[in-house]
Structures are given as C-alpha cells and as structure tokens.
Amino acid sequence: xRFIAFISAFCWVAAFxxxxxSSNLVQYVKPxxxxxxxxxxxxxxxxxxxxxxxxxxxxxIPYEMNGKYNKDVYKYCAGYQYDDPTIVGFSHTHFSGTxxxxxxxxxxxxxxxxxxLNPGTENNPGxxxxxxxSHANEVAEANYYKVKLDDHNILAExxxxxxxxxxxxxxxxxxxAHIIFxxxxxxYNYDDKNxxxxxxxxxxxxxxxxxxxxxxARTRTVYFAMSFSKPFTQYGMKDYSxxxxxxxxxxxxxxxxxxxxxxxxxxxxxxxFKTEDQEKVKIKFALSPVSTRNALENMRAEIPxxxxxxxxxxxxxxxxxELSKITVKxxxxxxxxxxxxxxxHAAIMPTVYMDVNGEYKGLxxxxxxxxxFTNYTSLSLWDTFRAFHPYLNIVNPSRNADIVxxxxxxxxxxxxxxxxxxxxxxxxxxxxxxxxxVSVIADAIIKGNWKGDAQRALEACVTxxxxxxxxxxxDYIDKxxxxxxxxxxxxxxxxEYAYDDWCIAQLAKKLNRQDIYEEFIKRSxxxxxxxxxxxxxxxxxxxxxxxxxxxxxxxxxxxxxIEGNTWNFSLYVPxxxxxxxxxxxxxxxxxxxxxxxxTMHLPDEFFAETEDITREGIIGNYVHGNEPxxxxxxxxxxxxxxxxxxxxxxxxxxxxxxxxxxxxxGNDDCGQMSAWYIFSSxxxxxxxxxxxxxxxxxxxVKSAVVSLENGKTFTVEAMDQSDKNVYVKKVLLNGKALDxxxxxxxxxxxxxxxxxxxxxxxx
Amino acid sequence: xRFIAFISAFCWVAAFxxxxxSSNLVQYVKPxxxxxxxxxxxxxxxxxxxxxxxxxxxxxIPYEMNGKYNKDVYKYCAGYQYDDPTIVGFSHTHFSGTxxxxxxxxxxxxxxxxxxLNPGTENNPGxxxxxxxSHANEVAEANYYKVKLDDHNILAExxxxxxxxxxxxxxxxxxxAHIIFxxxxxxYNYDDKNxxxxxxxxxxxxxxxxxxxxxxARTRTVYFAMSFSKPFTQYGMKDYSxxxxxxxxxxxxxxxxxxxxxxxxxxxxxxxFKTEDQEKVKIKFALSPVSTRNALENMRAEIPxxxxxxxxxxxxxxxxxELSKITVKxxxxxxxxxxxxxxxHAAIMPTVYMDVNGEYKGLxxxxxxxxxFTNYTSLSLWDTFRAFHPYLNIVNPSRNADIVxxxxxxxxxxxxxxxxxxxxxxxxxxxxxxxxxVSVIADAIIKGNWKGDAQRALEACVTxxxxxxxxxxxDYIDKxxxxxxxxxxxxxxxxEYAYDDWCIAQLAKKLNRQDIYEEFIKRSxxxxxxxxxxxxxxxxxxxxxxxxxxxxxxxxxxxxxIEGNTWNFSLYVPxxxxxxxxxxxxxxxxxxxxxxxxTMHLPDEFFAETEDITREGIIGNYVHGNEPxxxxxxxxxxxxxxxxxxxxxxxxxxxxxxxxxxxxxGNDDCGQMSAWYIFSSxxxxxxxxxxxxxxxxxxxVKSAVVSLENGKTFTVEAMDQSDKNVYVKKVLLNGKALDxxxxxxxxxxxxxxxxxxxxxxxx
Lengths: 763, 763
What we know:
The structure is a homodimer. By secondary structure, chain A is of the alpha+beta class. Chain A has a domain at 25-317: Beta-galactosidase, Chain A, domain 5, CATH 2.70.98. Helices cover 27% and strands 23% of the residues of chain A. The first copy, chain A, contains 19 helices and 39 strands. In chain A, strand 8 (138-141) and strand 9 (144-149) form a beta hairpin. In chain A, helix 6 crosses helix 7. At the A-B interface, strand 14 and strand 15 of A face strand 14 and strand 15 of B. Chains A, B: This is Sugar hydrolase. Chains A, B: Its cofactor is Ca(2+).
C-alpha cells in the first residue's frame, strides 16, 4: 500500500509538472492592470466569478459626509489605487471596473504593537492601523495576492475559493499581535450606509455575523463566518455610533472586551494574539447571502483544512482551466499578458450569489433555492450586454445560461415585474439606461444556449419593455421617442430601447410569436424619430415634435445622452447600420463622417464631461472608455472601406490596452472592455447581440484555438501577422474563401478554422 | 348527503348553544381592567398566547428625543391609556403589563376626508390621522375590540387568530377613504429605533414587508403580509428620514405614489378607497419571525376566508376552552370578573414565536425549526417564575413544557451560553436580575411536567449559574455574596441567586447528581451572608466583608436592591423561611415584624421610588405591585399565627384587584399579578417553585373545579364562604383532615377535593 501510494504521488507530481508547463496561463495574468487611474480593477485574489473577492483597500474615504459629495471617492470604486502609499486592510467583496460602487465588506487588517482601532491617515499611517507598503514587496496573481506591511513587519497573503477568503499573515515575534476587524469600513461609505451589524464570537477561533447596508444596493445583507487557525487570547469592540440610543439592560455588560454577543451600527473589533517570529496566523472567511449558518457550511465545504498553498494552487488551476479555453499565439509576452488579463477580467463579474446548498436571497428578501442553476448577481447590463455576454456564450455557455436563469428569477421576484437593470445582491440598483437584459436573453436563446422555457423568457422581456412608468417607456410607446422635456437622457434611452426592442422582435420571431414580433420590430425603428436630418445627428426632441433648439454636438451634459455626446451616440443603431448610414446620407458621406470621429480634437472643456476615462481613453472624439462606441469601429464594414475597421481596431487594441497598472484607458466595466479586447484580438465582434453575426475586424493574435464546451474547437489563424500587417487581404473559413464580412454563431460553435491573410496594405 | 349535512348543522347549532350557555366564560373577561394608570394591560384582541395582539394605541409618544428621556412614555407600555381622548391607530404586537416596553408594530388607522400622514396631537386630533373616541362607543372582549372613530365616522372592529390580525372597518360613503399604514410608529419609540423597513406592494390587495428595530430587543425583525378585502384605488408613501442619503438610480422613480418597491428608515404609507355607506373594508394582517413568505403562509393557513364573525367566534371559543379549565363559583359577578380576567391576563404572554410551518428565528438570527414543541417568546422571567409558571404547570402543563423547551433552545443559540433572562423575539433584553429560568425548568421537571432530556436541562442551568462574568456571579461564587462596591443591586441579586441555586440543587437531587447538588445547595445558603443581625435586615456588604455604612431601610434607590426596599426584600428567602425566621430572632419576634410591614406608613418620599405601582398598590410598606413580596403574606404559615396569612391574603385580593380600568394596583407583569390572584383565590400559593408544595391561604371562591390535562379534576370548596369568613377553621383533603399547612403537587395532579371550612374568627 505504501509503495503504491508513493508511486501515485510520484506520478501526480510528474503529471502536475507537465500540466503546469503546458498550460501555465496564469503567468500571463496581471491583476494589477487597471489599478491605476480609471481602470477600477482590483489586484486581490479571486477564483472565476467568485462570491468572495479578497483584495487590499488603499483607502476607505467616505462617499459623502453630512450630505456633501466627496469626489475623490470615485478613485476607490474597487478599493485600491496604485499610486497610494498605504494599505488600510483587506476586504472580501469588490466590483471590478465599475464607475460607481459599493461593497468592501468586512475589512481585516493584521497589525503589531499598540492597538489602534482607527485607520489613520495616508500621510501619517502610524496614526492608525493602516500600513505603508511598496510595490516592490507586492505580488498580484490570479487568486493570490501578497504584500509586505511595512509598519507592522507582517507579510500578508490572500487566496480564495468561490465563497471563502483565505488570509495568511506571517507575523514577527510579538506580544501585541492584532487582527483588526473593521465593520464600519466599506467602499463608497457614508454616514448612514451601515444599517446594522451583528457579530457573535462563537468560541476562541470562530466568529459569525452579518452586515446590512443601504448603499448602491438598498436593502443588502451579507452574512459571514470567520475562522482563525489559532485561538485569540482576547478580543474587543468599540462602537463608533454617533447617536447613543437606549441600550436597556445590555448596560449590565461590558461589551467592549471579550463579550461575544455584539450588535450596532458602527463597530470595529480586534482579536489579540501572541506570535513567534515568522508565525503564520490564518483566517478563513466565508460569505453567504442567506445566513451565518450557510456561511459556515460554505466554509466547511470549500476549505475543510488549513493548507493555504493548496487553496492557492487549486484556485490557480481553476484559472488555468478557465484561461485555457482560448490558447493564443501572439507576437510577444506583452500581448499574451493583455489577452489573458482580459480573459481574467472577463471572468470576475458577475459573481456567484448562492450558497453551496443552493440557497440565495431574492429581491423579495425571502430565501430561495436555485432550481437547476447557479444564481449570479452583480450584472452591470448596460455595459456587458454588448460583448461580454456574447463572449460568455462562446467560451462559457453554461455559465451564461445560468446568468439568464438568474435574470429570470430576478424578474419573478421583482415587485415591479421587471428584468434586472443592474442586479446587485438581491436588489436592483437601477444604474444606467435601457432594458438590456432582453439583449442577453434573446442572444442566449437565439444562439441555442439557454434551454429553459423560452415563452416565459419572452413574456418577461415583453412585460419589462411595456412597463410604461419606467423611464419614459410610456411616452416612447405613444410617441415613438422619449420627449426631451420629460427626460434628461431622452435620446440615448430612445436609441437603446430601439435596439432592445429589436432583440425582443428577434426572439419573438424565433418563437413564432408574430404578434409580438410585429409590435417590437416596429418599435425597433424608433431610433429614426430622434434623428435630425438637418444636422445629421441624433438630437433631443420635444413633446411637441420639434427638436430641442439649444444643442451642442460635442457636449455630453444636458444634451439628452448618458456617457456620450451625439457624435458618439448617433452611431448607436447596432441592429440596422445600413439604414442608419442611408439616413445619414449614404456610404460616401458616412465614411468621412466616421473618420472625423477618430481624427477630430475634442476640446478639454468637453472631455471634462466624459466620465470614467483618462485623456488616453479618447481617440479624437471616439471614446473607447465608454461603452456606447464599442461597435463603432466595426461600422466601416457597412461601407466600401472595411479596411478602416481593420486599421481602427488594431489601433484601439494597441492604444487602449497596456501591461502596466494604468493599462486601461477607462473603467473595465465588469469585463466589457476586456471582452471587446478578446473579440477584437480574435478578429471579429458581435455588433448586434441577438443576431447570430460576428463582424470581421483584424485579428491581433497570430493564432488562437477556442476550445468549446461542446468538445469542438474553433481556430483563428492570422497568416503573416505583424504590427504593420493590420489589413486583411483574404479570409478563409474552413479553407474556403469567405465572401462576406461576418461569420455566424453556428460557424463558430460548429468548430472549424478561420484564416486571415494579413497585409501591410489596405485592400 | 344534503339531508345529513342539514342534520349535522342542526345538531352543531344545538350543541353550540348548549356549550355557550353552560360555559360562556368570556362574558367575565374585561380586557379593559388594568388599562388605566399602572396596569399596563391592553384592551385589544388576542387569542390565548397569540403572536398577534391587535390593540388600539392612544398615543405614540417617543421614549426619547435627541437623547433626552421622555418620562410620559412609561404610561404607554401597552400602547393604551384609558384616560386618553383619542386613538392613533391599531397595531399588532403588545406586551401585557410590562414596566418597560417595545413592540407596537405596524400601526393601521382608517380615516376619511383629507389625507393626513402624521398622527396629529391629542388636543387637536383633526391635525392628524388620529381620532377622538368615547368609551361609550367602545367594546373590549376577549378576542374582540370595537370602537367608533368619531372624527372619521368609522366603526373599527378587531379580532385575531394566533398569527393573524383581522380588521373590519365600516366606512361611511366616501370618495376619500384611507387606510393609513404607519411604519414609523411603535411603542417606546425613539429617533434611531427604526433600523430598516421594507415594503412590497405585491398587487392591489396584497402588501408584504418587514420592520427591523433596535429597541428593548436589540436586533429584531418582524415580517408581515397584509391582505385587503377590496382593491385599493391608489397608494403612496412618505419618507420621513432625517438624513437624506445616497439613493442612486432609485431617483429615477417617483417612489411616493403607486410605487410597489419601498424601503427606508421612516416611512408612512396610505391606501385609498372609495366606499359606499356602511361598506366594510377588511384587512388580514399576518406576522412571521422569519419571512414574508411565512407570514403569507400563516395568513392563508389560519384565515382562508373573509368571515370576520367566524374568526371572532372561533377565537372566543378558544378562550372559553382556556377559561373553562377552572370553573368557579363565587360570591358575585365582580369576583367572577376578577377571576376570569386574571385567567385571561395569565394567558396572553408569553407569545407563540413560530410560524405554522414550525420555523422561527433564533438568537443567532438563523432560522430554526422547532422539533416537537411550539416555540414561545416574551418571557419576563423575573416576574413570572414566581406564580405564573407554576400556575401553567397545573392548568396548562403542555404549554409550560413547550416554554421550557423554548428556553433550552434559547440557551443552545445563546452566544453567552445562558438561559433566557427576558426572552424577547430572538433576543434577550437582559431585563431584571437573577437567572430565574432555572426555577421554571426545575419546577417543570420536578413536577414531572417536562419530559425532555433532563440532564441537558440541568447542564444549561448549571452553565448559566456559573457564568462568572454575569452580574457579579464570579464574586458571588468566590465570596458568597455580591459586593456592594461592585454592583448596584448586590443584595437583591444575592438573594435571588441563592433561591435559584436551591432550584438547581433540587433538580440535581432528582437527577441523582450529588456533585451538583452539593455545590448548589451550599450556594443556596448565601442569603445568610447579606443578613445584618445587628439591624435585622438584609444589607449591602462591601468587598472587605463589612456592611455598607450608609443605609436606609425604607429607601429603594441606591440601597442594593431592585424594585423593593430591604423591608420587603429581607423576606426573600422563599426556599428556607424557617431558617430566615430563626435568623431574624425566631417566630415570636418575626410575627410583629411582619405585621408592621403591612401596617406601617411608607412616607411619600420613599413611595416615589417604588416603581410601577399606584399608591393603592401599597399596603403599609408591603408592595403588592412589585413581585418580590408576592410570597410574603404566606410567611405567617411558618409562625404560630397562620390565620394572619389568611387575613392578609383576603385583604390583598380585595384591595388590589378591581373590576374597573384602574383595577390593577401595579403592572400586571405578564400574568404574574394575575396568577397570584388565581392561586390565592383558590386558597394556596407556590411560595418556592421547584418545591412540590403549595402553601395554604384563604380561598375567596365558593368553589372551583380545576380540569386537569390528565383528565382528572381537582376541586376546591369553601364551606361557609363569605367576605367576613376569611379564616380557615379546618381543611379536609379528600375528606380527611389535613394536618399541615400545604398541599403537594401530586395531590393536585392526582385529582381530588380540598375543602376549607371558613369562619369569621381567627383560629
């Protein structure tokens, strides 16, 4: 027996070595990309779509104090800013790449020396529990983060499973070693955000509780279970609540020290240890949307041991598996890093919102059991319907199908009977415009990915789109556009509704619902109602049918759009570029118009209004950092100069994505920016999800093999690829010349090979 | 079939009529007793031990505003004060007879005319939604309350099932009929008490949600489902939160009108109707400790129809069943009213805290399923261990056994590993002193009532009693008393612990745990350590073993006691009166000492310090309105003058209990005052629960038949009973002369007859 075991172990090590060598794609993941300036990504540890995303906070500044907005908070959407000199602690939930934020639950910070319960300031880290750190002592990998906390002489390491964070802190010898547990801290915090906190010290290694907040999500509760590898010697709490309210007979207890039953609005806790030099104190920290009981069950199911390296390794193996769905050959390491980091960032959100036993909290705040699917939350649909969900349909179809099921469960639970706009921990935060769930649902069903009750799904789409009291839909139905005098984003919403309606029509057609098809295909033409032929742009229209007089085509604020001026948004007719171009004067007129978008100079006064992006995130007046333009470079495909799509796409890939911390020119937006990168690198892009077409651009990879869930592979090859050879001379699909500018979903999912012949000259 | 059904119905009606005539005991219940001054009872509708106790609020004044205590709030412990001229509304939860308070959840008020969302003031009811009313138009019965709301010309009627309140409002013809739903209102409210409120308007007749508060219970959430008999035409909400915090994209909605998804800290809602003259609008309002889903399930299970009269009738039948456990003959209707209203008040608390599906919320805030018992909450044990639980052991043993199971579940869930002090909706509010759960548990097990794992129960008692950090227990264990320099109620707690320890010892003896018996029988003698022989009273003792110098035997505040001065508390050795009397100088000295307690005059300055009672609640210096003296009148049984017990008991029965609204001289204290009345009326009293003895007094009934759950009956007869014949000449038990001053539990539960021969002369 022992001999056999020895042999097995030997083989396993050998096999592991081999696997590691042949598919160590994790080496190309740099979570640090996007952590400087506007990317709003985080460098911490997570497994794909993990519920726990354990990452350092470099500051926890309030969103507002006493009603006044603090504009610096915007930097901290993901909690970490690369330029900051200190780390405040490590919290368990983060959004990736958002432009507004929340979360940052359960901040933990290991310290030594005098106990300090306030975080202190950046300029004087010694004034609180925070610590200076340097990037030289920092490592950020997929599912692994390490940093030296200089002020405390502690090495911090983080890894995770889906629902459990694993901290490993290597202490110096100290009689005053502490774990600070800050239950006040949070991302985008403000005075009133912490609604309630409840903590139980179950024994000298186990703590449970919950945190209830009123933030971007309105009624949100996260439950936790925290287990220490070593008993604490003592612990305590300080309550920072401003208004002291009646505490009744709780006054008979000293709740500040070694008291196991705590609750309040603003609490910070500490746990004390004595440590030997280089002693590791480990913490497993599990979350649940439902209960502390479930959190504990999650922890016990996911990490029934204390082997940090094993959790790290298993998580990185999971990442390798995820990343190896596309095997890429590229010109250099920098491109591989861009590519696999994009794949990494496109596998962080949405997050699993369900316990190992299948339970989750619904919008009605009741506990539900997911029936045959994994429930997800954090769906930033205005961003992600464009390329991210179509990307999942190819590389992660089961997961995308579960996301569709999650959206329909959300609909079933919705008091408003609406599909999610921005699904956010048993809430909708209603962020941004449109009802783009319908695009994701239609796309998944039309592409044959989601296998549930499609008629029910259509019903949910239709009910949502007919919700007259929601953001101008009533007027939109009655007049064919949203009047500018009634709504501040009347034009962009009209355009987005028109596209969404087209998605519903496509779904209805597939399901032979002619009545619904006709209703919505008609609505999908409403974009024409806000086109002002006299200026050649989309323009706000008043209730009386006249266009709004004061109008600036470069300005964003107050012009009827959200995140984009009319130069960008006028091109937002993804479902009918042909007619759009025709209305704008035909192909000949359209090409120079589109050219000037990329070449004109946007004056600083107007740039200041474009949200979420750096100056580098803009090319001319083309704003890559904001989503409404993401299909724009592909529009040359509807003209006689498709080579300009090829040229622009390669330029954007080159200009907008870099290896450094400031490598993203705008918010990654929950994987949408990254999904754009992946598609475009492969040479095609889903201009209008819910159609089965991917429009060709110019691949930047040398080759790529997409391993599909159905067992087939789809290969992209770019012959004579180089930085100069950005133009596509010829395309073969499975060896035959392709006489069109798109490929279909069936062609991809059926497996096969797409060969691009690259050239330095425009065709 | 139809014929048979007709016959059955006929028989049923006949049978019902007969039952009604022979046992319409509900006629003797006057819920209005105790609603004036200090009784703190409520007049509204409830079934026995109902989770919903639906009752009018005559004001909703805040406990504190901006940190300042509002002493008038004390009047409103149960929400209703008889002298008030207006009714603010009807809420669904109330404590009965407490001296501190909470609850008052979900206030509903029907109005007509202009919509008003604030309650207005007592002096100017027209300034808000409240209404003037008069007692002439008010009916308060068991499970039925009716009142005319003068300002709105609405007849309001209330009835309930265990978990569902049923409102019936008869409106005048009106185009402006409203149901106000005040989610800010509550009993003992203050600025910060409402932690969170969540409401969903599911459709035009169904509303669900929850209310989370931070009151006497710290982390408390109550879920509801509200169903209207008639669709509302429109509805709306006003948010009264002071600090306006970030609401994100919720701003895109008008949440004030017909918006179905609401949440916030301070909300009031309204629902509008058009009514015909005399049209009834009915509301079913169910509660759950767990979820809105469970609340709805409770409602549908308990009231699957809209027949108000049926719910009222079934609830009153339930009361008749409850009351008919003791059939009494008395001198007159007034005594019957006192007796059956006492039985009524002794069947209101604790309340069922469990859904129809068996789920309830535990102290860990997790959802638990009660395994083989009904879970109860609102256990005011410092009050009720004395006579109320012993009373339940006789007339309601199954229920008391379930209460014991509830206490042990509480213990299992407790982070502090303690049995409940004051179990309060998945919380302990820690009110008052001692650990009197152990008395209730020991009493139930020793009397053979609770059939669970007794060793586990003993373990819970012992663990609780050894909790060194709880209220001086550590010092109490080490020194044999609680030092006065460390604790403000050092003497009363020492005395109460000593009695509780004796209970544990008795339980240990029964379970053959000699080790535990010895530990706790020793502890039970600790009362001697605070007895100062030099003054003949219990007295605060310092850490150094000397008695506290400054000491006033009449004063209550700051003397080492809670709710009682040393005159009263020095007699609190219920488990060993014999030795107590001996220490106090022997029987001869003790009798005049005890006499003077009843005959002395307590100066006003000291009366002001006795909480919870009216001047009438005091007899001399004997404070019947506070529990520590409840056994005192029975102490003459340990002297040569037991006739003084008989005389005093009859005097207290006569003086302290009346038929009017002001009929209770002090807080009813969750049935304890009432249980004292019942026992004493029957002629015996459990001086020391956990012993099997009931000490004889003087019955005030002519006869009483106690129908036991085991099918037997125990009869009390008082021969020659009259108001003057208060002395007991002779007692027969089952026809044989009783040569002792007590009867045993076995003698009662075995069935039989206790015959008192009454006389106008002291024996």
